[in-house]
Design goal:
With about 400 residues, this protein is α/β, with parallel strands linked by helices. It folds into 2 domains: about 210 residues, 3-Layer(aba) Sandwich (Rossmann fold); about 180 residues, Rossmann fold (3-Layer(aba) Sandwich), CATH 3.40.50.2000. Helices cover about 40% and strands about 15% of the residues. The chain has a 7-stranded parallel beta sheet with strand order 5-4-3-6-7-8-9, sandwiched between helices.
Amino acid sequence: MLQAEGCSEQVRKVIILSPSDIFPPVDGNSENIYHIVKYLAPRNVLGLLLSHVFSQGGPVDLSHSNLTIRYCPPSVFDRLQYKSFLVNPFYFKSAHDLMRDVGADIIQCQVLYTILVGYYLKKRFRRPLVLVQENAEFIKQVKFEAPRYVTFVLRWLEHLACNVADRIVAVSEVDKRHMVELYGIPEDRIHVINHCADEETFKYDRDRGREVRAAWGIGDDDIVMTYVGKMDAPHNTAATQYIAERIHPVISSRYPNSRFMIVGQNYEHLLKYERDGILFTGFVTSKRDATPNLADYLSASDIVIVPMDRGSGTRLKILEAAACSRAIVSTEIGAEGLEFVDGEEILLTKDVDEEFIQLVLRLMEDEDLRKGLGQRARKRLLSRYSWEREVARLERVYEELEAGAY
C-alpha cells in the first residue's frame, strides 16, 4: 500500500471498473458507483475507469487528490452497450494502464459485465478481486422471460464471476441467497452492502416541488402519483403499462384531478401509453445543485407508486422517495430486500391488482395518512440506509482481503 506523505499510515489503493458513466448518474448502479467513489476517496487512493456507454455527457463533479478518473476511448464496441465490456480491447487496455499507474492493491468490478477485465487484471497483477453485483442477473433475466440462450450464457458468466471473485458484494440478503443457492458460493465470501439515498440531496422541499408542478401545469389541488425508472428496462416498461391500463383508468374516473408522472430516460417507446393525466418527463438528474432535480420532482408528488411484478436492480426509487418523506405504495417484489415496515412506513401488496389500486385510493383520500407514512419512511431511511456507514462496511471487506483471507 502507498504511504501517505508526511505520516507513517499507509493508504489503500483500489481500482474501480465501471460499465458506464456516472456524471451524472442515470440509474441505481451508477448512483451506487458515484457514492462509493465519493466516500472512499478521502481515505483511499482510487483509480476509476468509466465508459461513454449510456453517458449523459455531464461535467465531472467529483475531485480529490486521491482520485484518478479516466474514460475508455469511444469506439464501435460501445454499440454493444453492457456486452461491450466482455470484448472491448480498448477497455482492457485502459484498465491495464490505470491498474499499472495506480498500483492498486484491490480490483473492484462494478456489475457482472466488467468481470472478464477484472479477472485479467487479477491474473496479470496478482491482486484480489471484489465483484459488486447489484442483483442475481440470471434470476432477473429468467423473470423477464429472456431467450434460453441468453439465460444460459448469463448463468455461465455469473457462475464464473462468483467463483473467480475473492469477495462478492450483494445489495440485499435476497440476492445473496440466490448466489449461494445457484452457484454454491460460501456465505462468508458474500457481503451484503445496501444501496442508499443521499439524505442531504433527497429531502422534501415544498417550494421547489411547487415549481415543478407549475412547470407541468399541475394545480395545487391536483393529486400527483409518480413512478421513477430507466424506461428501457423491461420491469419499468411493464410498470408503465400497468399504470396506463390498470391504475390510471380507475383513479382518473374517480379523481379527474389526478396526475401520473413517469420520470426517466428512454421513454419514447412508451408514448403509446400516453393518456390525459399521464406525463412523461424524460431524464431528471439527481444532482443537488441542478434546478429542478429528482428530489424536486419527488417533492412535487403526493404518492410514489411502484407497480412492479418482477424484480431487478437496486430499489433506489423507494429509498429516494422515502428520503423525500413521500408516501409509497409498492408490490412486495418492488420493495424486495428493503427494511421498511408494511403499514407503518410503506404500503405493500403482492400484485398490481385491485388491492394495489385501493391502497392508492386510500392514500389519496387521507392526507394525514400520507404525511405520517412519509415521515416514518424518512426516519427509517436515516437510521438504516447511510452511504457513509455502508461504504465503511465495504472497507471492512478490503481489510479481510488485506489480511490474506482469500
